[in-house]
Amino acid sequence: MPRPTLTALAVTLALSTPAFALPTLEKATAGGVSFLKPAGWSVRVEQGPATAIHIEERAGAADSPSVMLMSMPLQQGPQTPALFAAQMVQTVMATPKQEAQQAAPGGGLQVWSGTIGGIPAKLAIVHQALPAQGVGLLGAFAAPTARFDQLGGVELLTRITGSLGAAAVAQPSPAQPAAVAGALTVPPPYAGTSMPVVHYLTEKLESLTPAQIAAGLRQLNDTERLTLGIYGAYANLLHAMGCQADPTLLLVTQSARQTCAQTLQQWAQTIQFVGQAEAPRQAATERGQLRVAARCTSGQLDPASCGTYQRTLSDLNAQSHDTMIRMIRNLGGNTCTVGEAGCVPY
User: Fold this and answer.
1) Residue 195 to residue 111: CA distance in whole angstroms
2) What is the pTM of this model?
3) Is residue 343 part of a domain?
4) Can you give the pLDDT at residue 301?
């Protein structure tokens, strides 16, 4: 994650912030990035089309102050981070009211007030596009209104974003795809399976760089392309992560050839329909199914456990299919509800 240059934006806004005691900051590293965070706050990395680092005072608590750091490919051009910022405000905050705004070349800073999960809160967002590196950055700090000011508000956010260190693997620009054109070496026991790349990516996803994921997607075999065509949400997740290293990367399955822009657009539409928190759930579910398959195929799980899992998965898939068919049949204006006693079976 490249270093942002937006710290200076905070000066004017910070001068107007009520008195505060900035929490003690400590060094942390996550997702190949070094940064400062409030001492004692937890850190969680979320892989997705836009890789995010979540820093929380009390993980999972509805009223916990939290900071999010995000990087994304500039699939919508230099305005991509600003579009992400606008989408975040509309998704996270009810009845948002802009309290302050400050622009700068390539980026800007905003402060909003409203409610988050029914709790009166403030949200500060700083964003910047780095066209030379092909990526955009976004930082956000949200907290209940009184705590927002007590913790430093904009000053806390810009202190954290200003501390970002270089990623373990530099992000290349769109004009330099050759930097990530190497092959992915798949080690045993995955190398001997029918889907070596998919199994390896699925098991080791958190430890792989975007460049390694991109390299893997370029060397899929026919079985892997067919599988990713079925597990579409997980395929989009892998593709979006690979696109952070190579914006020209195509996702090629048995059913489609998909550009990075198309994948990012699909992800944005998913968030619009189901919400920011729910969007990654299907991808995680599909990855979980493929992870068990990888362990069974590579011999890391015993045959009895694999047999139990396969039977359970088959039952769940049959129930899901049954429910879907009933819904479709009941859209036809039947005089009774298909599936209920006395109704003609479908």
Assistant:
1) 47
2) 0.53
3) no
4) 81
